[in-house]
Specification:
Layout lengths: L1 H16 L11 E12 L2 E9 L1 H4 L11 E8 L2 H7 L7 E3 L5 E4 L1 H6 L2 H9 L8 E6 L3 H5 L9 H15 L8 H8 L7 E8 L2 H4 L13 E11 L2 E6 L1 H10 L6 E6 L5 E18 L2 E18 L7 H30 L6 H8 L1 H7 L3 H4 L4 E12 L7 H6 L1
Helix pairs in contact: 10-11, 12-13
Length: about 400
């Protein structure tokens, strides 16, 4: 009897496992790679960038059409606008392959919680796409710009933010999960990278934008946006963004230009940077210490300096330490005095150190934070000199 029951159970299971009851054919879907959200008057304007699969396929010759198509619709909510989009698109928009969400500057100033609610709630959206903010343009205009090299503009936006983050340090890749966690935190404020259109917006939509050697319209990241709760209140400059990332332990590599003892300049490549934020309470007063350990190589030398001497390397280390300390202090002063927002997580560091004292402090943290004393310690070590030791200027002087 038990064998018969087992056979029947296996038979029922095979019936349940066979087929795909919720399957969707590729030719029934419009694959969305980028989503733009703007606020026009009292309505949300949604823009989607949809892939034309026949134009990006390596097996089919290109017809000369654009590899992506953008569609736009409006609604009282993001959900309504996206559903209304079906009156325009030949297929139902499919968001499982979304790579980038672009939020318009005007909407960001009003607050991003409402549009993020739908994105976080809908089961079709994954949580690994990046979120960015526009500057001096709408999300719709940004998604309409055709980009060279990368056929899909969404890929360009994603790759640029990640390459810049690794090699220059002025951007910050923030996915939805990270953003939502920060927005729900009472101890830290959110930041997002900012993109702007460089050139005539009207030309960016034209196919000729990718058919010239010099591209007349490009999408460029200009810095990092600072939020108070869910509202955009300011943008750190490119330089400030780099030194914010030094403080935030997000620098993988960047370049520092230093003056030489006898005139001229040299450039160093930061190859490793590690920062550690520690909080403490002294006599009930919160204090912060930030230690930054840096490893660098000599990248370019345009001055007569003898790199074979220890004193020269010591000089370079000292100059790098001084510059990074000076610039991080300036950036921190801007964050504390101008924005008065804890975007570096000082509150979290104090909470970890002493939860009981933090409980007493957090109620007044917004007024205490701008005056918190911060000690920045920078330690630099130079490892590589490149394939040659001394510069041609030094050799010619000799």
């Amino acid at each position: 009897m038990s064998k018969i029951k087992m056979i029947l159970l296996l038979f029922i299971l095979t019936l349940l496992l066979s087929g795909c009851w919720s399957k969707r054919e590729l030719n029934e879907l419009a694959i969305v790679v980028a989503l733009g959200v703007d606020k026009i008057d009292d309505e949300y304007e949604i823009s989607i960038q949809v892939v034309d699969t026949s134009e990006i396929s390596s097996k089919q010759p290109s017809s000369g059409r654009s590899p992506v198509v953008t569609y736009n619709s409006k609604g009282k909510s993001v959900f309504e606008a996206i559903r209304r989009m079906t009156t325009l698109t030949p297929r139902r928009p499919y968001f499982a392959h979304l790579q980038m969400v672009v939020i318009g500057e005007k909407l960001a100033e009003e607050g991003i919680n409402e549009p993020l609610d739908f994105i976080a709630r809908d089961h079709e959206f994954r949580n690994d796409f990046d979120v960015i903010i526009t500057h001096d343009s709408t999300a719709k205009e940004v998604l309409n710009v055709l980009t060279p090299i990368e056929k899909m503009p969404a890929n360009k936006l994603l790759n640029s933010i990640k390459v810049s983050e690794k090699s220059w340090g002025s951007t910050l890749s923030v996915n939805t999960d990270e953003l939502l966690n920060t927005l729900s935190s009472k101890e830290k404020s959110a930041v997002l990278s900012v993109v702007e259109i460089e050139g005539d917006t009207k030309l960016g939509i034209d196919q000729t934008n990718v058919e010239r050697i010099t591209t007349p319209v490009i999408l460029k990241y200009i810095g990092i946006a600072v939020f108070k709760e869910d509202k955009l209140i300011g943008i750190l400059s490119e330089e400030e963004s780099i030194y914010y990332n030094f403080l935030n332990n997000k620098i993988e590599s960047t370049v520092e230009v230093l003056s030489c003892p006898d005139g001229g300049e040299l450039s160093t490549e930061i190859t490793k940077s590690t920062s550690n934020i520690k909080g403490t309470f002294k006599n009930g007063i919160p204090k912060i210490t930030i230690k930054i350990d840096i490893t660098q190589n000599i990248g370019e030398v345009n001055c007569p300096i003898n790199l074979t001497k220890d004193k020269s390397i010591h000089y370079i280390n000292k100059k790098t330490e001084e510059r990074i300390k000076e610039q991080t202090k300036k950036t921190l002063d801007t964050i504390q005095k101008n924005y008065k927002l804890d975007i570096l997580g000082f509150g979290e560091a104090l909470h970890r150190k002493d939860p009981k004292k933090w409980e007493k402090t957090k109620k007044e943290w917004s007024t205490i934070y701008p005056e918190v004393a911060v000690n920045i310690e920078v330690n630099v070590a130079t490892q590589g000199l490149g394939t040659i030791q001394n510069s041609l200027l030094h050799n010619s002087k000799e």
